[in-house]
Design goal:
This protein has 365 residues and is mainly beta. The chain has helices at 16-19, 66-71, 305-314, and strands spanning 23-30, 35-43, 49-55, 79-85, 103-105, 108-111, 117-121, 127-131, 133-134, 137-139, 145-147, 149-150, 159-161, 175-181, 194-204, 214-219, 235-239, 242-243, 251-254, 258-261, 264-265, 277-282, 286-292, 319-322, 331-333, 336-337, 351-357. A hairpin with a 4-residue loop joins β1 (23-30) and β2 (35-43).
Length: 365
């Protein structure tokens, strides 16, 4: 059944000549849960409908409500149509808002993959779902290769910090190497490339200023590398390889588990617990944002992961990926939150996916 108590996009001013054939919103009130389900659907062959990643801090890590993130999307990049909360994220600690898994925002490598399922869009707008493994490393002048993390709390391995964490490294101790990009090295860093940096200086104690034309390699202890390797002027090589290769990928976001793959439910481990859920899915023709309210007896009890996978099958999807849920589960469209968050108000979150109507070349931005 269809409920009429939710606003539809036709009630708000919109360039209908461009939207009508490619973008739709639907609210379903399903008695069997009961479930309240929000569905955004876009045509994949509409190149003027973009899929982008949002960060809680705008151009850097942080947390903010979904409505704030979506409303602040740069108008020059297009008209924000709809947004859905994204990957699980650090809700505390020095890297507040850090996505748990893979994150690529407009081509910039923000967060390294964690080996779990992720979604990514190829440079040809092809859509992909699968586990992604990080092969990120810094190669010292003597050829020694250090496996590294990216823009995350430094725990058991060295971490590379970029401007995406802000002006200073989010560390309170250790040894940190300021590295300046050599000629021919492009910033911000992107996946699937090798680039060269020259060591400018070494600092102890953390909270190092990140150079605008470089990065900072943060080491837990100085003897992770030899003194000759940390001599000013030494050359280091950054490898941002992943498996599979994500070179030239404009948009990617982690999550998990995968719900559907090649039209079949995946073998994920899950209980029958019902919770608010957010997920994305697609088939050959359409891409979907789906949000299910939960923890609201008599209105919407939430879905188990198996029920969510079955719902994507009913939508005709062949691929689907679960995202962060619970209090984070939120869908925004045309200037407002369309669901009822289970905590009574929006939870600040670290990242999201947004659908945009992108400017055509002949139209003013």
């Amino acid at each position: 059944s269809r409920s009429s108590n939710k606003p539809s996009f036709s009630q708000a001013p919109a360039p209908r000549s461009r939207l009508a054939d490619g973008f739709s919103y639907n609210h379903e009130a399903l008695a069997e849960g009961p479930w309240s389900v929000q569905v955004i659907r876009i045509r994949r062959d509409r190149s003027d409908l973009g899929i982008h990643v949002l960060l809680g801090g705008g151009h850097q890590l942080g947390v903010a409500t979904l409505s704030s993130q979506a409303s602040n999307f740069p108008r020059a990049q297009g008209q924000a149509l709809a947004a859905l909360n994204g990957d699980f994220f650090a809700r505390g600690g020095p890297c507040l808002g850090d996505p748990e898994g893979l994150c690529i925002r407009d081509g910039e490598f923000i967060s390294a993959p964690n080996g779990k399922s992720a979604f990514w869009m190829g440079p040809d707008r092809s859509l992909h779902l699968g586990p992604v493994v990080s092969l990120l490393s810094m190669i010292a002048p003597d050829g020694t290769s250090l496996a590294i993390g990216l823009n995350e709390e430094r725990l058991e391995r060295p971490v590379l910090f970029t401007a995406a964490v802000g002006p200073l490294t989010p560390s309170s101790h250790g040894t940190e190497c300021r590295l300046i990009a050599e000629a021919g090295t492009e910033l911000p860093i992107r996946p699937g490339i090798r680039s060269t940096f020259r060591l400018q200086s070494v600092h102890s104690g953390g909270n190092t200023l990140i150079p605008t034309n470089g990065v900072v390699l943060s080491l837990l202890i100085r003897n992770e590398v030899s003194p000759t390797q940390t001599a000013p002027g030494s050359l280091w090589t950054l490898s941002t390889e992943t498996r599979p290769d994500l070179k030239n990928t404009p948009t990617a976001l982690g999550g998990g588990p995968a719900l559907l793959k090649d039209g079949q439910p995946t073998q994920f481990q899950s209980s029958d617990a019902r919770h608010p859920r957010s997920a994305i899915g697609w088939n050959a023709e359409f891409f979907f944002l789906v949000q299910v309210d939960g923890r609201q007896r008599g209105q919407s009890v939430g879905m188990s992961l198996a029920e969510l996978a079955a719902h994507f099958t009913r939508l005709g999807c062949t691929e689907a990926l679960n995202l962060d849920g619970g209090g984070s589960s939120t869908l925004w469209a045309r200037g407002q939150i369309m669901n009822t968050p289970c905590e009574g108000s929006e939870r600040p979150m670290g990242n999201a996916l947004i659908i945009t109507l992108e400017p055509r070349a002949a139209e003013p931005r």
